[in-house]
Amino acid sequence: MITAGVDVGNKFTKVVILGDGRVLAKSAVLSGFDQAAASEEAMAAALDKAGIGRDDVQHITATGAGKNEVPFARSTVTEVGAGARGALYLFPAARTVVDVGAEEGRALKCNEQGKIVDFAINEKCAAGAGSFTEAMARALEIAVEEMGPLSLQSTRAVPMNAQCAVFAESEVVSLIHAKTPKEDIAHAVHDAIASRVISMVRRVGLEKDLALIGGLAYNAGFVRSMEEGLEVKAQVPEDPEYVTALGAALVAAEKAGEEA
Amino acid sequence: MALAREPQRKEYWRWTEYNWRNPDLDWRRAKTITAGVDVGSVSSQAVIMCDGELYAFANMRTGSDSPTSAQRAMDWAMENTGMTLKDVHFTVGTGYGRVNVPFANKAITEIACHARGGNFMYGPTVRTILDMGGQDCKAIHCDEKGKVTSFLMNDKCAAGTGRGMEVFADLLGVSIEDVGELSLQVAEEPEPVSSTCVVFAKTEATGLLRAGWPREKVLAAYCSAMAHRVVSLLERNGVEPDFAITGGIAKNVGVVSRIEKELGIKALKPRYDTQLAGAIGAALFGKALVEKGRR
Amino acid sequence: MIANYGYKDGAGDWFLSIDTDKCAGCGEKPCVNSCPEQVLEAITDDYDDEVVAVREAHRKKLRYSCNPCPRMEGKLPCQQVCPADAIVRSW
After folding, report:
1. From what superkingdom does this record's organism come (chain C) (predicted)?
2. What is the domain partition of chain A in residue ranges?
3. Which of A118, B56, B116, B187 has the highest count of CB atoms within 10 angstroms of its CB?
């Protein structure tokens, strides 16, 4: 049985194609301002990689901020539901899942059966999402991919006072003027965003294992700040960005099974 | 240097800095000369008052450190007056950098100074002052003497602040001083930008521009979102007339008119530069302290 | 004066409102020590009154500073010990 999950995020649209519990292909394209077109494009790319046609896919489930914009999806699932599903598939021992994407952060807790018992979503504020790191990378005049490795070189914690991403940008600029090493600033940026994500985790209550998913989990600096702040080791998948799409594909498989 | 090689880019956020002197006053005849220095996160003002009358002021952008900004503003206010710091009987520092005004005799919070200054600028009937500054937004209620009866401040987030407006001026390539007027040149009021967060609002605006919206329509959508944000802050304490708006955003007719519309109350017409409220209040606190000392 | 410390965000209103006219008359200020997070401090305000204020460091995160506190009859410890009912919270 072949199914697919489409995760239309604020920044990227991700597709995972699943064949009998195995990932056949995945793809990501910029969501842009036409989410329907982006999902078509991502789907076509993934089908191409898998070497199959659209008709070979039995069920497609959409999730993410633009889940209702996917013209070819048969069903939808919430981001929280899909994220939990994907994370527990990869890490069956995970009880707390943190998912931080470009514009949204989520923390959820589930029981042994994988059922979500509590979750928290950040407040539509860039301070607790991936956009924060992007804005700070711009202020530091480095690529966002460099932020993580750079901050790992830091051994010193400098505090950041600003909560708001816009104010934090000015703070980063003053830190640069004050000759603060860039690695220490990057470290401070990750501590700042982690502290906000951690308060969300505390709200649902931390239970081990902790899994980090979503685009920000690629950032080793953020992962370190999370681990230090929560004093627990985190499970990070190889492709954290695709976990929610994977979860949607798993949901699709279930639906296809019901239909059969 | 790397910075020098970058192509020259217009700084749309930059507003006109200036100084002013009252030609009808001679400070040498004054009994009490006091100064108020408001070092904000974005702008700094120095005000000199002679016996409670406005004598001179300077309004400029805050530099990288508070002491230098305070000194520069004060020097510019005293320019061509023959006055030196020694002639000033008392100086009060206020604003975000108030404890870093090296020549100040005392620091007083901007909340108290805005109420006192608002009372001077708009008269004793003003009861609600909305201060929309560079990095914060304050809703202040005061009595007929300009004493604070309640206050509320948002400085956690750039939504509803001057900094948020600067981000938009830059994005759209419109001078910050023209944003308000331009935002009113729409035939029909668009839906406000839905994101409160300035970072997300910027992404949203980029999308609207790509969808073919003209700049004025995007500005209208942002100005009304900002007005809405501020009004929701005002709701907590209510708005009691007379109502006045101070700070840099008070000069933005696009935001002010939309706040008035949403509240159903007109704001008092300003007779002074709206950015001076804090510094004027500080100078008046100084006067009261000098007079108390003499008694 | 009603001093509102806190903020508004997507999740709601997070304000501690202190009636400093009631507070200025209180010599003990038991609220300060009742708070496990040291959110409150005694200050001299701009009108030379001895009042209680929310510390600067907590003003932008009140929601997280105050939420773990136990409630008795719906009141936080600082509210319970205040002899003048001068502290009101918005959530």
Report:
1. Bacteria
2. 1-91+240-260, 92-236
3. B116
- Right CATH number for A92-236 from 3.30.420.40, 3.40.50.150, 3.30.70.270, 1.10.10.10? 3.30.420.40
For residue B159, list its beta bridge partners: none
Cα gap C80→C87, rounded to integer Å = 9
Distance CA A90, CA A251 (A): 14
| Chain A residues near residue C57 by CB distance under 8 angstroms | none
Decide if B257 is inside a domain: yes
Calculate how close chain C gets to B135, using CA atoms only, in Å.
14
Q: Which of B148, B151, B154 comes nearest C8 by C-beta? A: B154
Own/partner contacts of A159-162, CB < 8 Å, gap of 24 or more, are: A159/A188, A160/A188, A160/A189, A160/A191, A160/A192
Residues A163, B156: C-beta atoms closer than 8 Å: yes
All residues of chain C having their beta carbon less than 8 Å from the beta carbon of residue A125 are 9-10
Burial (0-12, 13-18, 19+ Cβ within 10 Å), B106:
middle
Q: Which phi and psi (to 5°) does residue C42 adopt?
A: -90, 130
Instruction: Judge if B179 and B157 occupy the same domain.
Output: yes
Q: Which two tokens stand for residue B36?
A: 């108020």
By C-alpha distance, the chain C residue nearest A202 is C64
Sign of CA dihedral A30, A33, A35, A36: negative
- Between the CA atoms of A151, A188, C14 and B244, what dihedral angle is there, to the nearest 10 degrees? -120
- A115 touches C: beta carbon within 8 Å: no
Strands A2-8 and A59-63: parallel
CATH: 3.30.70.20, 3.30.360.10, 1.10.1060.10, 3.90.226.10. Which one for C2-89? Answer: 3.30.70.20
Q: Which residue has the tokens 């990070």?
A: A236
Q: Can you tell me which residue has the tokens 């039995």? A: A58
pLDDT in 10s for each residue of chain B, 295 residues: 344 444 456 788 888 899 999 999 999 999 999 999 999 988 999 999 999 999 999 999 998 889 999 999 999 999 999 999 999 999 999 998 999 999 999 999 999 999 999 999 999 999 999 999 999 999 999 999 999 999 999 888 898 899 999 999 999 999 999 999 999 999 999 999 998 899 999 999 998 998 899 999 999 999 999 999 999 889 888 999 999 999 999 999 999 999 999 999 999 999 999 999 999 999 999 999 999 988 7
Search chain A and give the residue with CA nearest C56. Answer: A161
Choose among B283, B256, B281, B278: nearest CA to B269: B256
**Min Cα–Cα distance to chain C from A104, Å:** 13
B285 and B190 both lie in a single domain? no
Q: Do C47 and B233 touch (CB under 8 A)?
A: no
Instruction: Say which of A135, A170, A174 has its CB closest to residue B199.
Output: A135
Q: Is B173 exposed, middle or buried (0-12, 13-18, 19+ CB in 10 A)?
A: exposed
Query: Cα–chain-centroid distance for residue B42?
Result: 9
Q: Give yes or no for a contact between A1 and A257, defined as CB atoms under 8 angstroms apart.
A: yes
With an 8 Å Cβ cutoff, are B150 and C3 in contact? yes
